[in-house]
Design a protein that fits this description.
It is a single chain. By secondary structure, the protein is of the alpha/beta class. It has a domain of about 140 residues: Rossmann fold. About 45% of the residues lie in helices and about 20% in strands. It has eight helices and nine strands. The strands form two sheets. The chain has a five-stranded parallel sheet with strand order 2-7-1-8-9, sandwiched between helices. The protein is globular. The two termini are about 20 Å apart.
């Protein structure tokens, strides 16, 4: 029996290039997994292989800024000349139906989420070494040299913010990282603060304790 009927909001975060998207996809592909991915909205151009509504909602700058003014984002950020954000209505809809909702966002966005949703589970994904991350960013080939340097400088600052997260997961291999994250999600469902009220409904109100 599931003691926590409300969905669990899980935030996967970390420096750009650490492999958040790859780990998230591996997590979803694991046998028995039943997660929902929170699709972010962005003003950047679609990259080769990306799909509208699956990887991102691609919108104009004007549309995005209108949504900001309406308070329509759980979090948003402006980076490398583009907006990125998580639509609030999609998050609430998923959690109310009891779904496990996975957000894949940058460090600044994670901080905004924790301010608005105190029960969110935050996971900081890190590479085995900083040098591996920097080399991966240089080899990715999807940004200009200026954007690459900006991402590297940003990553250097973000490593020092790991203490703000609930968990740290090393992405030594994608399979290992996905397995560790699934174990965290299972453990979070059993935490007393999430399950105690449903438990009392099952066995009594706890007055005899």
């Amino acid at each position: 029996m599931k003691l926590n009927e409300r969905g669990l909001l899980v935030v996967l975060s970390g420096p750009s290039g650490v492999g958040k998207g790859t780990v998230r996809k591996a997590l979803f592909d694991m046998y028995g997994s039943d997660f929902t991915y929170s699709v972010s909205m962005t003003t950047r151009d679609m990259r080769p292989g990306e799909v509208e509504g699956k990887d991102y909602y691609f919108v104009s700058k004007e549309t995005f800024e209108k949504k900001i003014a309406e308070g329509g984002f759980l979090e948003y950020n402006f980076f490398c000349g583009h907006y990125y954000g998580t639509p609030m209505e999609k998050v609430e809809e998923a959690l109310l139906t009891g779904k496990e909702l996975i957000l894949e966002i940058e460090v600044n966005g994670c901080r905004q989420v924790k301010e608005k949703m105190l029960d969110a589970v935050t996971i900081f994904i890190v590479p085995p070494t900083k040098e591996i991350l920097y080399e991966r960013l240089r080899r990715r080939g999807t940004e200009s040299q200026e954007e690459i340097e900006e991402r590297i400088n940003k990553a250097k600052a973000e490593f020092g913010l790991a203490y703000q997260y609930d968990y740290i997961v090393v992405n030594d291999t994608v399979a290992n990282a996905a397995d560790r994250i699934r174990a965290i999600i299972r453990a979070e469902h059993a935490r007393t603060k999430r399950s105690i009220y449903k438990y009392y409904e099952m066995v009594g109100d706890g007055s005899e304790q």
